[in-house]
Specification:
The complex is a heterodimer of chains A (about 725) and B (about 550). Chain A has about 725 residues and is α/β, with parallel strands linked by helices. Chain A has 26 helices and 26 strands. In chain A, the strands form seven sheets. Chain A has a seven-stranded mixed beta sheet with strand order 3-2-4-5-7-6-12, sandwiched between helices. Classes of the chains: A alpha/beta (about 725), B alpha/beta (about 550).
């Protein structure tokens, strides 16, 4: 796993009155333990990976409490896990990245929320929306509405977030509704503190198991005719129960203010930005004492109609601040005001943009309109000036720059084993002509950026092979589907491989077998090299992925006839195998497995090992690639085949030449791609491989000495 | 460009404009994997240790994989004890114009934050690294696609009330630590935040592994910023100091502006072949010089490109590089010199007592060998190659990983290098000389008609570089430009000058030649000749047979 949570795990043990300091997502994790959950599951993905990672690493603590932790194979299995709470009074929590994860989980969620739950159920949803997001821009809110689930969107402040977790379980039990808590990326990574409580060992747990299963109860199956009753329960009993709980425990925060003829209704997750914006207008002090009445919705579904009506009643106008589209909250408020014939003016997406993050700047621009219309005695000059100054600065600099600054998208790590495969793919296509590439989710989707620009479509995690089914029959050339081992196990095996085999499709699947779900933080999967293997490996430098053949065996078992495994750094070999796959007469499914351990994990393994060797004064081999600047032709063809961060440019030391030359900077891990490309693509002969042997053996030193004496004679100055 | 002397640390302290109605906000720009997360963790811990309420956040996501990302930190500069239990509200996003500091480990990322309008000239202190991590767009350009550091820096310096510029990468490297420790030191040194230096040191010391290195980096950056040193070295590096004109007396006949390059060019071709080759270089240069002189001074004198000697200077550069064209002989020579071994030792950081082994990646093919054979033999060899291709086989090439640290390896290289005397009889030599003359004639004719035109054609020498396909592509493009755009038939001198400039720039835009074709098309010039290329047929997918054949 990419990060070690040793320190954080100690914090998870904190007891009553002690102060927890750390990240939002870890505070949530602590809150789960304080709420007495019996089981925790989920599927990794930014920004909630840490929750599961820390749980997996905290097995000791967790087993003391008897809490079961399951690293699920995908979000569907995580959601299905929640079924445990349908019959039994046990609390469970799962986590994943939304919207994509919730999409995968949707089937189980519908069937879970139909019978409803006895024990409290909470889904920690990483709402990956806006800046830094890596998924489709959609709202989880829709799922809460369609499946009648609770949706919490707490104020991004640790103690509120923690309280809301505990309330979520209680509310879930009070209303029999599964609860979701959406956390934006900045809230997950916010660093703050809260006063903790001791962890609660669950009444029912792996330490205190249930003696007997529940009695058979058809009414708890998501099956007709029970489902007709469930529908009535949802509307007539569960929603009212939830609303009752929200009011009883004051989950939504209502603030009075001296300007009581207006008000602002806002999602809890956005409220800090609002308060900082109000400060700019001089309408709030630094301690959140606002002059404008606020209704902060820590629960955004269901809305408590009476609460909102009371807030809006006697007000000239209210502004609803809601992130993303459609504006579900604003629409529901509009309806409830109309039904009650309340004439309060309703503002929202008319003053705020319909898309994108609602940052303080966006808010300030919206508030400016709102106050000019409804708060004449507000002094908006300062904010006006601030915003105008910002606009002028932006335009001035835009003019100063002759063209837009080059983007810096994420890319393959230094020495990533996936980079060479795309070099090979690029070379193969230079020979055979371009082919349609069905891309997938994972680190390999970085190949959609320069210099590779590979990938015509991405249809979801593990969907590449399936997404080709409609394309390849219509193509003169074969189609290549890219899939990581993460995507393969997430669902590519069934939606792609099984279907292609069943239909006898003529397809080419390229699997990256790097041993981990690397993009989400190198979590382990079923095809990850065993711990013992890592421990016992003689040559620690070698990739260990070959030691686990689960993928190969599974494919063989399914009946894959054409399968080639290629070490991913062998660019020329890979190019030839790709050529073969694209041109062979064999018409079935052709699978190429690119073998090469995730470089992040490899380095994590070998760095301490090398340090130890050096400390013991033992022989250490260090490899670095280099470029002879007087030989480099300065046309940078190597860059267009690699994109490695350590292969970059420097000024040409030759005063006659004007173009910068290639150079390999520190940080090169000697993966060998530079040399492989130089050969495979016949690049200029400027690349060399330098092997530095520290603490060499005596005979190595002797040979070196002899050589240097001879070379001194042979070499001109 | 002029450099603002950085204000002393004291003047970096918060300006009175920022009243206590708001926390202090610091935006940190960094690249994934630079430890920005650790930095924010440190800052919050330091704030707590010093007794202030603070909050930080970040948006790692996939940006952690070498992409650009930002971290945000806010602290309320009144000790918690004085707040009477009240909690200040912190933001998760920076408010444009309300930043107190922008700290960034890479110059382009600093400029990016500036172009987003985040810092303000009234309020923001900018602490930026002068170091660049080149983006792919900059690296992949066929010529020089790098951004101008001076321009970036002036944008940055125009957008803040005060700034510190330091090479954070170098300081980190020199102290064997990561850039996050250096950034912390710079922040502390600026005195912006209400923390004592010791608060920082205490927290960093507790951060476990690598703490000592971190502290060293912290201290170095603290010194730098606290003493308000502007990075003179960087400033100097940006000032373009030209090489002083010098050289043997034979060059006195040439315009002074061109002598430095002529001297370099002459020594280059002599080193490449021999003295008589140098004489050939000089005689060619004399023709150019005379032609240029015959035209008299340029039309507009304020344009340096058309000054007397400008064409000579350009040709001096490109002619030398062309005459010293790269072939295996040259490469072998360059790779088997003592100076080169030393360079590799330095680059690979080889310590005394270490053993170094070097392997060269060569892939000689038919063209490389044919280059050294007399024309008739070379043609036979090339025909055999074409035959192979026609039969759908791949061309003959021999990938070798030559161990140049061994005696045998070096002997081989020296043997190849010694073949430079055979070069003259080789087919490539003849070929290159004809092409060179073709180009020179075009330059001469161009110069006689119009100084600017001659200058433009001279600059096309830039298209010639490298080996194999790169070199061929360059030649074809150059010939195409000379044949079609330089000939009077194309248009007036001015039109041709413009056309050639555009074509040259397009030729350097992408190696597929897409941009060039587009430009030629726009110019109404004939397209480039289509190159013969073997076609590989793939079996059209039949109605699936299901099982293997």
């Amino acid at each position: 796993m990419e990060i070690s949570f040793k320190k954080e795990i100690q914090q998870l043990r904190l007891g009553d009155g002690e102060t927890f300091h750390g990240e939002g997502i870890l505070a949530i994790t602590k809150a789960l333990l304080q709420s007495g959950v019996s089981y925790i599951g989920g599927y990794q993905g930014a920004p909630v990976s840490h929750l599961l990672d820390v749980m997996v690493q905290a097995r000791g603590l967790v087993s003391e409490l008897g809490v079961h932790v399951e690293a699920c194979s995908n979000e569907a299995s995580a959601a299905a896990m929640l079924g445990a709470s349908i019959h039994y009074p046990i609390r469970g929590a799962v986590t994943w990245k939304s919207i994509v994860g919730t999409n995968v989980a949707a089937d189980a969620l519908a069937n879970l929320s139909s019978p409803g739950v006895t024990g409290g159920v909470l889904m920690i949803i990483g709402e990956d929306y806006g800046e830094g997001a890596s998924v489709v821009q959609e709202r989880t809110h829709a799922y809460a509405m369609k499946s009648t689930m609770l949706l919490l969107d707490p104020r991004p402040e640790l103690s509120t977030m923690v309280d809301m977790v505990e309330h979520a379980f209680a509310m879930s039990e009070a209303s029999n509704m599964p609860a979701m808590m959406e956390l934006r990326i900045r809230a997950c990574h916010v660093r703050g503190s809260f006063i903790s409580k001791h962890n609660r060992a669950p009444a029912v747990s792996s330490l205190a198991p249930l003696a007997e299963p529940a009695d058979f109860d058809y009414g708890r199956l998501a099956h007709p005719p029970a489902t007709f009753r469930h529908e009535k329960l949802k509307i007539n009993e569960r929603l009212p129960a939830a609303r009752g709980y929200i009011v009883k425990h004051g989950l939504n925060e209502q603030h009075e203010g001296k300007h009581d003829h207006i008000g602002i209704i806002i999602q809890g997750g956005l409220s800090n930005a609002l308060l900082r914006s109000l400060q700019q207008f001089g309408l709030s002090d630094v301690f959140a004492k606002s002059d404008v009445p606020l209704l902060i919705l820590n629960v955004t579904y269901p809305l408590v109609h009476e609460q909102i009506a009371d807030f809006a009643r006697k007000k000239r106008a209210v502004l609803v601040i809601e992130e993303g589209s459609p504006d579900y909250i604003e629409q529901e408020i509009a309806t409830l005001l109309r039904r009650r014939d309340l004439q309060t003016v309703l503002h929202g997406k008319d003053l705020l943009p319909a898309t994108g993050e609602v940052t303080p700047e966006v808010m300030m621009r919206g508030l400016l309109h709102f106050f000019t219309q409804h708060l004449s005695d507000a002094d908006t000059r300062h904010v006006q000036a601030l915003l105008e100054a910002t606009d002028t600065r932006r335009t001035r600099i835009a003019e100063q720059l002759d063209k837009a600054l080059p983007a810096r998208p994420p890319g393959f790590c230094i020495g990533c084993p996936e980079r060479p495969v795309f070099s090979a793919l690029k070379l193969a296509q230079q020979e055979l002509g371009p082919v349609h590439v069905a891309a997938d989710i994972g680190c390999h989707s970085f190949a959609t950026f320069e210099p590779f620009s590979q990938g015509h479509s991405i249809l979801g995690y593990g969907m590449s092979l399936a997404s080709r089914a409609g394309v390849s029959p219509m193509m003169a050339r074969r189609v290549i589907s890219i899939m990581g081992d993460g995507g393969f196990w997430h669902n590519g095996l069934l939606t792609g491989v099984q279907s292609a085999l069943f239909n006898g499709d003529d397809a080419v699947l390229l699997i990256f077998k790097n041993g981990y779900t690397s993009a989400t933080g190198t979590q382990e999967i079923i095809s990850t090299p065993e711990a013992e293997t890592k421990l016992l490996a003689g040559d620690k430098l070698a990739s260990l992925t070959a030691s686990n053949r689960t993928i190969e065996d599974t494919l063989a078992g399914l009946g894959v006839k054409w399968m080639r495994t290629v070490h991913s750094y062998r660019v020329a070999v890979m190019r030839d195998v790709v050529r073969e796959a694209l041109t062979t007469d064999f018409n079935g499914l052709k699978v190429i497995i690119a073998e090469g351990e995730c470089q992040l994990e490899r380095q994590r393994r070998i760095r301490p090992w090398l340090v130890a060797l050096q400390a013991r004064g033992e022989r250490v081999l260090r490899v670095k690639y280099g470029v002879d600047d007087d030989v480099c032709n300065g046309d940078h063809a190597c860059m267009r085949l690699s994109g490695c961060p350590t292969l970059t440019l420097k000024d040409n030391p030759d005063p006659l030449k004007v173009d910068p030359v290639a150079t390999v900077i520190d940080g090169c891990v000697g993966c060998g791609l530079c040399g492989e490309n130089a050969h495979a693509a016949t690049l200029c002969p400027s690349f060399y491989r330098a092997e530095v042997i520290q603490n060499p053996r005596w005979y190595e030193r002797l040979i070196a000495a002899l050589r240097s004496t001879v070379l001194r004679v042979l070499q001109p100055a | 460009m002029s450099f603002v002397i950085a204000p002393s640390a004291s003047s970096d302290a918060r300006p009175s404009s920022s009243t206590l109605s708001e926390p202090l906000s610091v935006l940190i720009g960094a690249l994934g994997g630079e430890g920005g997360g650790v930095l924010t963790e440190w800052l919050t811990a330091i704030a707590r240790h010093a007794g202030y309420a603070a909050q930080s956040t970040s948006i790692p996501g996939v940006a952690q994989r070498t992409g650009a990302t930002t971290y945000f930190f806010e602290v309320y500069p009144v000790p918690v004890v004085q707040l009477g239990g009240r909690q200040p509200v912190f933001s998760l996003n920076p408010i444009p114009g309300r930043l107190d500091a922008l700290v960034s480990s890479e110059l382009l990322e600093t400029a990016r934050a500036v172009s987003n309008g985040l810092p303000s000239p009234e309020r923001t202190l900018i602490i930026t690294s002068s170091s660049r991590t080149l983006t792919h767009a900059e690296r992949s350009h066929l010529g020089d696609g790098r951004l101008d550091n001076a321009a970036l820096l002036s944008i940055v310096q125009s957008a803040c009330r005060a700034n510190h510029v330091l090479d954070m990468q170098r300081i980190a490297r020199d102290n064997g630590t990561v850039v996050s420790a250096v950034m912390l030191g710079a922040i502390a040194g600026s005195g912006l935040l209400p923390f004592a230096k010791d608060d920082h040191i205490t927290i960093v010391r507790d951060s476990g592994r690598g703490a000592e290195a971190s502290l060293a980096g912290f201290e170095a950056a603290w010194q730098w910023v606290h003493e308000g040193r502007q990075q003179a070295a960087f400033a100097k590096q940006l000032v373009d100091d030209a090489v002083a004109a010098s050289g043997p007396s034979v060059l006195n006949a040439f315009p002074t502006g061109a002598r430095d390059l002529l001297a370099l060019g002459l020594s280059r071709v002599i080193d490449y072949q021999d003295a008589s080759y140098g004489e050939l270089y000089l005689s060619r240069m004399r023709q150019v010089c005379d032609a240029e002189a015959s035209v008299g001074s340029g039309a507009d004198t304020d344009n340096p490109d058309t000054e007397q000697g400008a064409i000579t200077r350009e040709v001096a550069r490109w002619l030398a590089l062309w005459m010293a064209y790269d072939d295996i002989v040259r490469v072998a020579d360059l790779k088997s010199r003592a100076s080169r071994s030393q360079r590799v030792r330095n680059e690979a950081r080889v310590a005394d007592g270490d053993v170094l082994k070097t392997y060269e990646y060569f892939k000689p093919g038919v063209p490389e060998i044919a280059a050294l054979l007399p024309v008739p033999l070379a043609e036979r060899l090339k025909d055999m190659n074409r035959q192979r291709l026609a039969e759908g086989r791949t061309v003959w090439e021999m990938p070798v990983k030559l161990a140049s640290h061994t005696v045998v390896g070096t002997l081989l290289l020296r043997l190849l290098a010694a073949m430079k005397h055979l070069r003259r009889w080789g087919s490539r030599y003849a070929e290159e000389q004809t092409l060179i003359d073709a180009w020179l004639t075009a330059v001469l004719e161009g110069a006689r008609q119009d100084r600017a035109l001659g200058f433009e054609i001279a600059q096309c020498g830039r298209l010639i570089k490298g080996y194999g396909s790169t070199n061929e592509r360059g030649r074809d493009n150059l010939l195409h430009v000379i044949r079609h755009l330089a000939s009077p038939a194309f248009g007036t001198a001015a039109e041709r000058t413009e056309a050639i400039r555009r074509a040259r720039e397009a030729a350097l835009a992408d190696d597929a030649g897409k941009a060039l074709d587009k430009t030629l098309n726009e110019l109404g010039a004939p397209p480039r000749a289509i190159k013969a290329q073997p076609i590989r047929w793939m079996p059209r997918q039949r109605i699936k047979t299901g099982s293997a054949p």
